[in-house]
Design a protein that fits this description.
By secondary structure, the chain is α/β, with parallel strands linked by helices. Helices cover about 45% and strands about 10% of the residues. The strands form 2 sheets. The chain has a 6-stranded mixed β-sheet, with helices on both faces. It has a 3-stranded parallel β-sheet with strand order 4-6-8. Strand 1 and strand 2 form a beta hairpin. It is globular, with a radius of gyration of 20 Å. The protein starts with a strand and ends in a 14-residue tail after the last helix.
């Protein structure tokens, strides 16, 4: 195994152990690579079978980021030369990533994610499914896929629909960044704890008299985290979403995406957070806007597994279509910040193109995520 992911086991009372995972690529802000995914999955499976492992604690190396997203440059380098051709390595990356995300959502032991610093895209996929999600004063969560011609995947179809009213749609369309207080409000975090307490939390977990069931150990874990949350209360940031909830509700109340986009873009408001969201929507891919809107509409009543199966179809098509390739080129490769999007506005995106993105190429009985 390489050192891009570090695994450790913290000794606890009564011969129990806390499993530790550290995403160890500080230079790339712990971007989630295919190699990382493929190292973490078997380790989690092995820990599931061990009675002495009481919980898993996942963190990122350094203080800047838990995980700033997927390894986009790797994906770019494996996109087909000709738009429309298959992209098997892209498909395999997303397949393995979604399996890992689903495993975290359904893990048989308490699962803590210490979401300090930047948590974006694939990083949020890891954090969203944990049983105990900690945000800190440095947490900055976003799903900014609209800027690179993608859509909010990694379970976004599921968790964006769990947010108050149309907040999930607004965040998906604008890629707006949210803080720890926002994250608790929209159910992407469970606890706010100052980052300086991380080692104290680990020390306290080592002293817990762990029990024999997941439910009991989740309660014991919650008690520890709540005690540190009490000590951190004064450092919690002010929520941006709460102050704008009524406006967000009003702007997203229309029953068609063209009107919703126009409402958000044209809202006359002087507010740095909201204005950044407007700007990101204005400069993003119109195709991504359509994919995001349709994704959220279609997944309202889907199970978690059904959401991941739908997302694999959309992501596979994103690897073939070319919009994602252009978005990454402009933002991360040539860095001219001038993507030549295929469509000038959302109304220009043909319905048959939207339908194609959501039409599965998989035989349902042999779906690669059929086992979820």
């Amino acid at each position: 195994m390489s050192d891009i992911v570090l695994f450790d086991e913290l000794e606890c009372r009564n011969d129990k152990k806390l499993a530790l995972i550290t995403l160890n690529s500080e230079k790339s802000l712990n971007a989630l690579s295919h190699a990382m995914v493929n190292e973490i999955k078997p380790k989690l499976k092995a820990w599931q079978e061990r009675d002495d492992i009481v919980a898993v604690f996942l963190q990122g190396a350094g203080d800047k980021a838990f995980c700033a997203g997927g390894d986009i440059v790797y994906l770019y380098n494996n996109l087909p030369d000709v738009n429309g051709d298959p992209a098997p390595k892209i498909e395999q990356f997303f397949l393995d990533e979604y399996e890992l995300d689903h495993m975290i959502h359904t893990y048989n032991k308490p699962f803590i994610v210490w979401g300090n610093g930047i948590v974006m895209g694939g990083g949020l996929g890891l954090m969203a499914g944990a049983s105990h999600r900690v945000a800190t004063e440095n947490t900055r969560i976003a799903m900014p896929e609209i800027s690179i011609g993608l859509y909010p995947d990694v379970g976004g179809s599921y968790f964006l629909n769990k947010m108050p009213n149309n907040t999930g749609l607004f965040l998906g369309l604008t890629g707006a960044a949210i803080n720890a207080t926002d994250a608790k409000y929209v159910s992407l975090a469970d606890h706010f704890i100052a980052h300086t307490h991380k080692q104290d939390v680990l020390n306290a977990l080592a002293e817990v008299n762990w029990g024999g069931t997941k439910a009991l150990n989740e309660d014991k874990l919650s008690d520890v985290l709540l005690a540190f949350e009490q000590q951190s209360k004064t450092m919690a940031p002010v929520s941006n979403i709460k102050g704008h909830q009524l406006l967000i509700d009003e702007l997203t109340a229309a029953d068609n995406i063209s009107q919703i986009v126009a409402n958000i873009k044209n809202a006359d408001i002087e507010d740095k957070w909201f204005n950044r969201a407007q700007k990101s929507l204005a400069h993003g891919s119109a195709l991504s806007v359509q994919l995001t809107y349709n994704q959220i509409q279609k997944s309202k009543n889907m199970s978690l597994a059904e959401c991941f199966r739908m997302e694999l179809t959309i992501s596979k098509k994103c690897g073939e279509f070319g919009e994602f390739k252009e978005g990454v080129r402009a933002l991360l490769i040539e860095k001219d910040n001038n993507p030549q999007w295929k469509y000038p506005d959302v109304a220009s995106v043909e319905q048959d193109v939207i339908d194609w993105f959501f039409t599965s190429d998989y035989i349902e009985s042999a779906h690669p995520l059929g086992h979820l």
